[in-house]
């Protein structure tokens, strides 16, 4: 396994990057950290909202018990996001989409920053904070960046909820299956800014590696995936990923 600090890209990885045909990138909260988006875990901390651990407030049970509290938590985060911009990690990844024969970006993030950086066809396995959906008929609706968030379903009049995947909920139909299919086809897989603890998303790098892909993790901290990777880039995604775009 190759390890690298924040100033260098291992030769083998650079070689793989230059010859790869089918690339899959899995991102998590860490890719948005340098934009100012708080992560859920990492640095020994865990996100808390009004005294509630995030896995309690971001859970299917809480939607049933107190949908207003769930909205308050998501409204707060949407408000923060309005001011934030993509960082060099988002930009570097957006740059890759036209560089390889086949490129798939799978994100666990709900913040929309990859799309803001210009990434297309992003597979959002945990949904989007910029959409709501009806608790009865499941119709989805966009939430505008300015102005009021819609509260009721236009089709059936029932309440809306955030269109995100909470703990204990199924991923959007087909999203994981598609991501897993692309992971199995890839020859190079990057895992960027995720603690790789939340399943099924965390199984995508395992699927890629099991099917012969070269696996590279980019994270300032070690994760349960690190030992399993061909290359571990230890540092910030916004500093390391742009280095790959520099042809030496
Ligand atoms: C940097 C950086 C920088 C910092 N540069 N890096 C198998 C085993 C055990 C449990 C399960 C299992 N399969 C399913 C489960 C249950 C559960 C699960 O996985 N639990 C585990 C925690 C144990 N999974 C689910 O419930 C999923 N549903 C499901 O499986 O359905 C089937 C089912 C139904 C019913 C019962 C059982 C199964 C759904 C998961 C949905 C996750 N939702 C959340 C919240 C979304 C809404 C919201 O935003 O509030 O998604 S949880 C939260 O974690 C969020 C994230 O997308 C997700 C992943 O977190 P991520 O992105 O990895 O962030 P962090 O904070 O953990 O890590 C950040 C990393 O960045 C750190 O490593 C830092 O070091 C690094 N970093 N700065 C690069 N500058
Ligand atoms: Zn409805």
Strand order of the largest sheet: 1-12-11-10-2-5-6
Average pLDDT, to the nearest integer? 94
Strand fraction equals: 15-25%
Protein structure class: alpha/beta
What would you report as the Rg, rounded to the nearest angstrom?
A: 18 Å
Q: End-to-end distance, in Å?
A: 22 Å
Task: Sum up the structure in keywords.
248 residues; single chain; 3-stranded antiparallel beta sheet; binds ligand BJW; alpha/beta
Task: Give structural notes.
The protein is of the alpha/beta class and 248 residues long. The chain has helices at 11-19, 54-57, 60-65, 67-82, 88-96, 113-116, 175-185, 203-210, 237-244; strands at 2-4, 22-27, 48-49, 52-53, 102-107, 123-124, 127-134, 140-142, 160-164, 188-192, 214-219, 231-234. The strands form three sheets. Strands 1-12-11-10-2-5-6 form a seven-stranded parallel β-sheet, sandwiched between helices. Helix 6 links the parallel strand 5 and strand 6. Helix 5 (88-96) packs parallel to helix 9 (237-244) and helix 7 packs parallel to helix 8. The longest helix has 16 residues, at 67-82. It is globular. The relative contact order is 0.21. The mean pLDDT is 94. Bound molecules: ligand BJW and zinc ion. Ligand BJW is lined by residues 28-30, 33-34, 39-42, 58, 108, 110, 126, 164-170, 193-195, 197-200, 218-221, 223, 236-238.
């Amino acid at each position: 396994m190759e390890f690298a600090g924040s100033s260098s890209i291992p030769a083998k990885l650079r070689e793989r990057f230059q010859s790869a045909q089918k690339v899959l990138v899995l991102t998590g909260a860490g890719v948005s950290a340098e934009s100012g988006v708080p992560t859920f875990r990492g640095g020994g901390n865990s996100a808390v909202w009004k005294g509630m651990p995030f896995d309690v407030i971001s859970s299917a049970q809480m939607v049933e018990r107190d949908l207003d509290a769930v909205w308050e938590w998501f409204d707060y985060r949407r408000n923060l996001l309005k001011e934030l911009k993509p960082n060099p990690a988002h930009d570097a990844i957006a740059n890759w989409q036209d560089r390889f024969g086949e490129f798939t970006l799978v994100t666990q993030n709900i913040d929309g920053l990859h799309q803001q950086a210009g990434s297309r066809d992003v597979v959002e396995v945990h949904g989007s904070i910029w959409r709501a959906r009806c608790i009865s008929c499941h119709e989805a609706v966009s939430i505008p960046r300015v102005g009021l968030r819609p509260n009721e379903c236009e089709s059936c009049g029932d309440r809306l909820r955030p269109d995100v995947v909470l703990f204990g909920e199924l991923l959007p139909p087909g999203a994981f299956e598609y991501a897993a299919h692309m992971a199995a086809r890839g020859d190079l897989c990057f895992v960027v800014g995720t603690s790789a603890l939340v399943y099924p998303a965390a199984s995508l790098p395992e699927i890629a590696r099991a099917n012969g892909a070269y696996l590279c993790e980019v994270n300032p901290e070690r994760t349960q995936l690190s030992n399993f990777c061909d290359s571990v880039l230890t540092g910030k995604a916004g500093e390391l990923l742009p280095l790959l775009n520099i042809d030496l």
